[in-house]
Design goal:
The structure is a single chain. By secondary structure, the protein is of the alpha/beta class. The chain has 2 domains: about 150 residues, Aspartate Aminotransferase, domain 1, CATH 3.90.1150; about 240 residues, Aspartate Aminotransferase, domain 2 (3-Layer(aba) Sandwich), CATH 3.40.640.10. The chain contains 12 helices and 13 strands. The chain has a 7-stranded mixed β-sheet with strand order 2-8-7-6-5-3-4, sandwiched between helices. Strands 9-10-13-12 form a 4-stranded antiparallel β-sheet. A two-stranded parallel ribbon has the order 1-11.
């Protein structure tokens, strides 16, 4: 096996030294070797992709749809995505010039940040937050401005946003909103979205509104930031979470044409285009009544799982902001147990075979918490709660 010439390692992007591998993936791998482990670690829906969506992918293959699609995605999928966003959230985009199909929302995050950020720029990140935003921002040479929302039930208030803008001023290039949130499941209502839009309207700050979990909003109807601040918003969505299509890797990016076309250049350089069968499946998911019903059926089960886990963990002494969406519980470790979330999570995994993600993986405000994904069967969740209950009884200090 070849050994790299040591001097070459000094010639890499110097910002790579500021980041490491995904803490979520690293912890998941670390605990995977534990016998009989129950992993509630990754945001991976346990549902199968609905048959009519699979058939659309199969038809694409069988009809030899095997040549390059347009870089921004097939016209059918872009039209389906634009129709979906208009019908569900009353946000309106031209499918030809204002919508790009990406390799999952992950690529959309990378493309958008890489387009927007220059070295030295600042980006507001309400934390706890999906850590990819932190890593990509750092690799791009930007400075994350962390706003800890744990003191406000994990919601970025207008006052918090105003304070960050007042302190950092013209150096702020963008702000990220991810709702319903990964890792907390907390979301924003219409009044809160309007208030944040009012703060940002008088600025030149771009809003990256990651709404990948929008279809998994429970008690309240999801309201998009793009409805109230379309001229400054890049909207991210996709089918991974809504239709259990994580492996199909299809994301949707939408926004004002002049901004989107710049982002589309990075997309083109990075990936050329998404896979044709996956795009055919996503068009079926977003563009048909059956596809939209699929999510509603899944959502009913997610709500039942959420209520079960929330009740059990609350009984065990965990403090939880009850999630309004997504499929995560973000729980404060009770007093009387290690408040080092990595120590707690490792001990739980090793002693009782239950793996949760340490909360500090998600930035400031996540310390002393653990994230549980309830995108698992109710039977597995029942086993998990039994193991957690046993651990809490046997390990209290």
């Amino acid at each position: 096996m070849p050994e790299v010439k040591p001097a070459l390692l000094n010639n890499l992007n110097r910002h790579l030294g500021l980041v490491g591998p995904s803490a979520i993936r690293a912890f998941d791998i670390e605990v995977s070797s534990i016998p009989d482990i129950i992993k509630l670690t990754l945001g991976e829906p346990d549902f199968n992709v609905p048959d009519h969506i699979k058939k659309a992918a199969i038809q694409s293959i069988e009809t030899n749809d095997s040549h390059y699609a347009a870089s921004n995605g097939t016209s059918k999928l872009r039209e389906s995505a634009a129709g979906f966003l208009a019908d569900r959230y009353d946000v309106h985009y031209d499918a030809e010039s204002e919508v790009v199909v990406t390799i999952g929302a992950t690529e959309a995050i990378y493309d958008t940040l890489t387009t927007i950020l220059n070295p030295g720029d600042k980006i507001i990140l309400p934390t706890p937050i999906f850590p990819l935003y932190i890593a990509v921002g750092l690799v791009d040479g930007a400075q994350p401005i962390f706003v800890d929302t744990s003191t406000n039930d994990f919601v970025l208030s207008p006052e918090m946003l105003k304070a960050a803008i007042a302190e950092h001023g013209d150096d702020i290039k963008a702000v990220v909103l991810n709702f319903p949130s990964n890792p907390t499941g907390v979301t924003y209502n219409e009044e809160q979205i309007k208030a944040i839009a009012d703060v940002l309207r008088g600025t030149n700050i771009i809003v990256i509104s990651d709404e990948i979990y929008s279809e998994l909003s429970y008690e309240n109807t999801h309201v998009s930031m793009a409805k109230y601040l379309p001229e400054q918003t890049i909207l991210l969505n996709g089918v991974s979470k809504s239709h259990a299509m994580t492996g199909y890797r299809i994301g949707i990016l939408a926004g004002p044409a002049q901004l989107v076309q710049k982002i589309a250049m990075i997309h083109q350089f990075a990936t050329t285009t998404a896979s044709n069968p996956a795009m055919a499946a996503a068009a079926e998911a977003l563009g048909t009544e059956d596809g939209r019903q699929d999510t509603l059926n899944m959502k009913v089960e997610y709500m039942q799982r959420r209520d079960y886990v929330y009740e059990k963990m609350t009984e065990l002494g965990f403090k939880v902001a009850k999630p309004d969406g997504a499929f995560y519980i973000f729980a404060k470790i009770p007093a009387g147990y290690s408040q080092d979330d990595f120590v707690f999570a490792r001990d739980l995994a090793q002693k009782n075979g239950l793996a949760l993600i340490p909360g500090s993986s998600f930035g400031p405000g996540g310390e002393g918490y653990v994230r549980l994904s309830y995108a698992a069967s109710i039977e597995k969740l029942q086993q998990a709660m039994q193991r957690l209950s046993t651990y809490m009884k046997e390990n209290a200090k």
